[in-house]
């Protein structure tokens, strides 16, 4: 309990101090020396190709218009936001939307909120004058596998997405359930580059398409996209959860797991 409280306090302090941007103190030329992993620096256009027939900006536009009428703030999160390229492209399109990112750890190219500035310059998304008047996305560094709690309150976000992240997550549906928790009713979530996910019904493995059909019948609106390698799901009922259980229970202490136990491949059983 004490450890959880310390972590929560640390996250809150991180977000508090992020509200005081240091754009003016940035070394603007720092971005020219950054060596991004080009294979993982996907653009918004590339992401949209993987969630066809949807487009992320179109979904945000619809949410934004609805929230404007209701007088509500629109919030969007990317899980595994990497260097923040997609978030900054979206921020360029929708400056009034609050964007958030979560990364597992800091890297030499992305280690603080102001790293979004360097990304925007590197990929020519925004100019320096534009960045000086931009409210940067928020970022948290935390491993959200092994049933970990996403460090935000329930019903906070309108849209959550990830690209090429779920394949590295062992407890995939536990993460999906956390996403449902932080989504508002009617909120949607997109995830690309899924690996094969083994779901069993009475000991027989189901084709993933058939498994999604069973999940839909049990109350979760979920569908396959882009050649069955991307999914979209939507939060309906306030207490809706994915009706599956993992073959291996979530460990009480993930840090004590062996490397073999940490491998992301794991099956799920449908609940009855």
Outline the low-pLDDT stretches: 1-17, 19-23
Structural class: alpha/beta
Name the overall outline. Answer: globular
Q: How many extended strands? A: 11
Q: Could you describe the largest sheet, including whether it forms a barrel?
A: 7 strands, mixed
The CATH homologous superfamily of the domain at 37-197 and 220-238 is termed Vaccinia Virus protein VP39
Percent in helix = 25-40%
Strand proportion:
15-25%
- Placed side by side, the strands forming the largest sheet appear as 3-2-1-4-5-9-8
CATH level 1 name of the domain at 37-197 and 220-238: Alpha Beta
The CATH topology name of the domain at 37-197 and 220-238 reads Rossmann fold
What is the subunit organization of this protein? single chain
Radius of gyration: 19 Å
First and last CA, distance: 33 Å
Output the helix-strand order: HHHEHEHHEEHEEEHEEEHE
Q: Summarize model confidence as the mean pLDDT.
A: 87
Architecture of the domain at 37-197 and 220-238, according to CATH?
Answer: 3-Layer(aba) Sandwich
User: So how many helices?
Assistant: 9
């Amino acid at each position: 309990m004490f450890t959880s409280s310390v972590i929560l306090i640390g996250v809150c302090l991180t977000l508090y101090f992020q509200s005081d941007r240091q754009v003016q103190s940035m070394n603007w030329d720092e971005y020219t020396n950054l060596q991004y992993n080009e294979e993982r620096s996907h653009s918004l256009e590339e992401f949209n190709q993987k969630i066809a027939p949807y487009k992320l900006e179109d979904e945000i536009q619809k949410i934004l218009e609805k929230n404007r009428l209701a007088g509500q703030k629109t919030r969007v999160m990317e899980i595994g936001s990497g260097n923040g390229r997609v978030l900054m492209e979206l921020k360029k399109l929708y400056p009034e939307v609050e964007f958030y990112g979560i990364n597992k750890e800091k890297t030499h190219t992305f280690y603080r909120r102001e790293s979004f500035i360097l990304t925007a310059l590197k990929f020519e998304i925004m100019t320096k004058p534009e960045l000086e008047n931009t409210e940067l996305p928020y970022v948290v560094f935390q491993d959200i596998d092994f049933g970990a709690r996403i460090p935000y309150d329930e019903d906070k976000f309108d849209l959550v997405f990830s690209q090429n992240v779920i394949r590295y997550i062992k407890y995939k549906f536990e993460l999906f359930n956390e996403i449902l928790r932080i989504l508002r009713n009617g909120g949607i979530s997109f995830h690309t580059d899924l690996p094969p996910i083994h779901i069993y019904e009475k000991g027989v493995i189901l084709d993933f398409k058939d498994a999604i059909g069973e999940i839909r019948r049990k109350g979760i609106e979920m569908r396959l996209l882009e050649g069955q390698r991307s999914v979209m799901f939507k939060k309906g009922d306030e207490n809706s959860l994915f009706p599956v259980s993992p073959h291996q229970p979530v460990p009480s202490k993930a840090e004590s797991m062996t490397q073999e136990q940490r491998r992301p491949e794991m099956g799920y059983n449908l609940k009855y």
